[in-house]
């Protein structure tokens, strides 16, 4: 494997899984919040506990971040094999002469494929996710 391909694989893995870790400060919202909103709107006909999740974040950011990190980590674990396969497949398309524009397009395609897996995990566990959100929300709200 060439150095160019190895570098591309490393960059792709960082971008797909946790680009925010390279920043000095964490993003205002965990990626889970955006993913949850996408699944809720696009796959679950706007049914879910998004309002409770956002209110929980206002009331107790640590509780909301716990929910987010728990489900995000679960999705990453379940999609890990696919992520590796996608990274290798897309890396084969990159050569030393591949333009930056084409590399960005390839990364975007790879990210979309990985996102579909992550959304699938949330879809499959939708009731569990919402139950956890509601339980945390009620326990904080009643304190």
Shape: elongated
Report the helical percentage. Answer: over 70%
Largest sheet: none
Helix and strand pattern: HHHHHH
Number of strands: 0
**Low-pLDDT segments, ≥5 res:** 19-27
- The number of distinct structural domains comes to 1
Strand content: under 5%
Overall residue-averaged pLDDT value = 84
Instruction: Decide which structural class fits the backbone.
Output: mainly alpha
Measured between the Cα atoms of the first and last residue, the distance is 57 Å
Number of helices: 6
Task: Evaluate the radius of gyration.
Answer: 17 Å
Please explain how this structure is put together.
- It is a single chain.
- The protein has one domain (3-141).
- The chain is elongated and about 60 Å long.
- α4 (61-91) runs antiparallel to α6.
- It has helices spanning 3-18, 31-42, 50-59, 61-91, 100-124, 126-141.
- The protein contains six helices and no strands.
- By secondary structure, the chain is mainly α.
Quick structural gist:
By secondary structure, the chain is mostly helical. The protein contains 6 helices and no strands.
Features:
elongated, 143 residues, 0% strand, mainly alpha
How do the helices and strands line up, and which of them pair or pack?
Elements: H1 3-18, H2 31-42, H3 50-59, H4 61-91, H5 100-124, H6 126-141
Helix pairs in contact: 1-4, 2-5, 3-4, 3-6, 4-5, 4-6
């Amino acid at each position: 494997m060439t150095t160019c391909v190895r570098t591309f694989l490393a960059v792709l893995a960082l971008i797909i899984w946790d680009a925010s870790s390279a920043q000095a400060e964490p993003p205002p919202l965990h990626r889970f919040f955006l993913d949850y909103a996408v699944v809720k709107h696009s796959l679950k006909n706007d049914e879910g506990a998004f309002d409770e999740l956002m209110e929980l974040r206002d009331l107790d950011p640590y509780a909301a971040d716990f929910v987010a990190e728990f489900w995000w980590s679960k999705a990453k674990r379940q999609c890990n094999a696919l992520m590796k396969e996608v990274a290798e497949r897309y890396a084969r398309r990159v050569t030393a002469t591949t333009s930056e524009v084409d590399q960005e397009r390839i990364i975007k395609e790879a990210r979309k494929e990985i996102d579909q897996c992550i959304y699938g995990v949330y879809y499959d566990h939708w009731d569990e996710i919402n139950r956890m959100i509601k339980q945390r929300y009620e326990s904080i709200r009643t304190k």
